[in-house]
Amino acid sequence: MNSLAVTSKPGRRLDPEDAELALGQVQDLLRRQQVIQDLVHRQEEGDARATLVEQVLHRQHESELHELIKGLHPADIAFILEALPRDDRQHVWQLVQAEHDGEVLLEVGDSVRESLIEVMGREDLVAALESLDADELADLAAELPADVVAEVQQGLTEQERARLSTAMSYPEDTVGAIMDFDMVRVRDNVTLEVVLRYLRRLQELPDHTDQIFVVDRNERLQGTLYLTRLLTREPETSVAEIMDSDMLTLHPMDEADDAARAFERYDLVSAPVVDDQGRLVGRLSVNDVIDIIREASDEQVLSQAGLQEEDIFAPVLHSVRNRAPWLLFNLATAACASFVASRFEDTVSHIVILAFLMSIVAGIAGNSGNQTMTMIIRSLATNRINPRNVRPLVQRELLVTLLVGLSGSLIAAGFAVAISGSWSLGAVMMAAIVCNMLVGACVGILVPLLRARFGKDPAIGSSVLLTFATDTLGFFIFLGLATVFLL
Q1: What pTM was estimated for this model as a whole?
Q2: β-pairing, 221-226 with 6-9?
Q3: Does one domain contain both 255 and 191?
Q4: Residue 56 pLDDT more than 80?
Q5: More confident site: 43 or 8
Q6: Fewer CB within 10 Å: N-end or C-end of the chain?
Q7: 211-215 and 185-186 strand pairing
Q8: 230-241 in b/e burial notation, b at 16+ Cβ within 10 A?
Q9: What percent of the chain has pLDDT above 90?
């Protein structure tokens, strides 16, 4: 049995492999359904028997799809929907049980969620949202019609409406926008026995509850009581005796990325969120943090290629608009590199072997610069770079690049001598590679640092600028040295 498999409800399993298997089954059912429709449509019009067969098989496939989807966790349904083309996705979406619609909308990516909301009627949207908590509603509110949000708010209790308004009042990507309002509070002057009796009266504890928050009469946070202490100490012990006053607290306006780093550094499961007066207003739990980390990782990977998040089955024109700008910029940079190379036409015509060696000079510098740039972007993302350590960091990276360049250029120079028989060409090759690798290191360091300095994402377009520099300057350095020393 797979070690990741966990049982949640009867007939429902939590297992990534099950979800991937279910995706294949869904795709097979949809393909068979399409094949049958194509065969029936080839029959003569008015063939009642063919139409009846199509209807029977269609109902059978719909039933199989429904049963398959019904046994899946909302997160697995979201995984399947994201992997299907739009028409198939909307077909399967209609078969999802209404009670799970809200949970699935929370799980899917932003671009896919938009395509699902487009095909939902007003009543379906309202029904889907009514099953969500206030903090979950706040996550979706920006992507929903204003009248739908207003109607859902009318069905909330006064406390829920206040929570929703509070969550929506905070900027996106802050702790306040994603914090959870469900938490357990106690006073410090009661005994553990009283706390245990109070907990038993609750239907269930909020998800990821590892600590209970101790507050005074004005809701100001005094400390936290970990469940491990609650369960292992004598019932007559007072909360004040064993509560932990040395705790990490977050503010609603803190950056979500900073909170995620705190969770990672201190191995937290949850953390209290307090306002300027020290009052407990919410909590952040590890499931929210995991989402933050995943989204940040996805954004970094995409932004290095100059992309934004997109549905893999988004309309073609949408994808073109997303990808074209940086590709056009890359085309312009490549044209610059070609222009530089064309200025040394006489050199290349006299020493033809240079045309075959230029790509080595540019390629190895580009790869080296990409390594440096990746290290810098990662360090910026984890806040490990500050004004005090920039200078030694730059010095170290340049020294590493120099040493790697010297060793790599010796091999490249040997190769150049072997195919040309010219020691002078080998020396030029070695010098060009070392110089261009240092150029790549400088660009790999400076571009992310400068973008971060001006409040921009350091990853966006960095690889394109790096390629531009190592290609253009690499050709210039190599062919320039060849012109000076070989002609």
Answers
A1: 0.71
A2: unpaired
A3: yes
A4: no
A5: 43
A6: N
A7: parallel
A8: beeeeeeebbbe
A9: 36
